[in-house]
Write a structure and sequence with these properties.
Number of helices: 11
Order of helices and strands: EHHHEEHEHEHEEHHEHHHEE
Shape: elongated
CATH architecture of one domain: Alpha-Beta Complex
Helix content: 25-40%
Oligomer: single chain
């Protein structure tokens, strides 16, 4: 049964790390501290980065790199194709989700042009599902990066047979075992037996072990920083405003409000005998 990570009732084996997560988050990236990141939280995004990451994105070009910060929208593929040139070598992405059909079209171009992928922060939705397997190489810019897998087009009743066929071909051409991917994703996003009042995970945040289990070789993931523990995953998910599954645990849930302590009445005044 899936466990839930909230301020109450989190798994006992993670209690120590989680109790210090807030302090670790404030330390992450602080170069003046002798122990800048003791819980391996990773650098957390700024509020401006999160806002831009959730807004509709547009492709920008810098040298041999095309960059998208934001969500993938209908029209993103046409914009990408127009910006793509013979000298393009790299796609740089900070993506929190978006349109899977356009994401798939972009992934096909990434694969066919043998482009590398650099992840800066979040790589969720079409970025994780399609661009990550399609890329000729994958890397991250320091700590604080993560993948967020979502149900893909083959799991959507709205997808056309042509889209599903194109998706299957992309996975096969990219060397991804689609069956292993779908099995792992379904296991992480399944309904909780017996039901639950807690919100469900919208995506799955894998770690390096998960990627290797899906068939990615060591060479493909060795240059990636991904959340290495439960406290790190929780801090990153909450920073980006996402509820995700990580190691069969929901992370990113807001903390449960603490009830104010009951007021203690003052002691009665002492009486003196005359």
């Amino acid at each position: 049964m899936r466990r839930f990570l909230t301020s109450h009732g989190f798994p006992a084996r993670a209690a120590l790390a989680l109790s210090a997560a807030a302090a670790a988050a404030s330390l992450a990236g602080c170069s003046s501290s002798p122990h800048p990141d003791p819980y391996k939280i990773g650098a957390l995004p700024t509020a401006d980065t999160v806002t831009k990451g959730h807004a509709p994105g547009h492709w920008t070009k810098s040298g041999d790199t095309l960059q998208l910060v934001g969500t993938v929208t209908p029209g993103s593929a046409a914009e990408f194709t127009a910006a793509l040139g013979p000298g393009t070598k790299t796609v740089r992405a900070t993506v929190t989700g978006g349109d899977l059909a356009d994401g798939l079209t972009i992934a096909r171009a990434i694969h066919d042009h043998k482009l590398g992928l650099i992840i800066t922060g979040a790589c969720a939705g079409p970025c994780a599902d399609y661009w990550f397997p399609a890329a000729a190489s994958r890397s991250t810019t320091g700590s604080g990066t993560w993948l967020g897998y979502v149900p893909d087009l083959s799991q959507s009743p709205q997808a056309t047979p042509q889209q599903q066929a194109a998706e299957a071909k992309l996975y096969a051409d990219s060397g991804l075992d689609g069956a292993k991917f779908h099995t792992a994703l379904a296991a992480q996003l399944r309904e909780v037996p017996g039901g639950s009042a807690a919100p469900g995970a919208k995506m799955w945040m894998p770690d390096q072990t998960d990627l290797k289990a899906m068939g990615y070789p060591d060479q493909a993931v060795k240059n990636l920083w991904l959340p290495p523990n439960l406290a790190s995953a929780n801090a990153q998910a909450r920073a980006w405003g996402q509820v995700v599954a990580y190691r069969n645990t929901l992370v990113g849930l807001p903390p449960v409000p603490q009830a104010p302590a009951p007021a203690v009445p003052p002691p009665p005044p002492s009486s003196s005998k005359k």
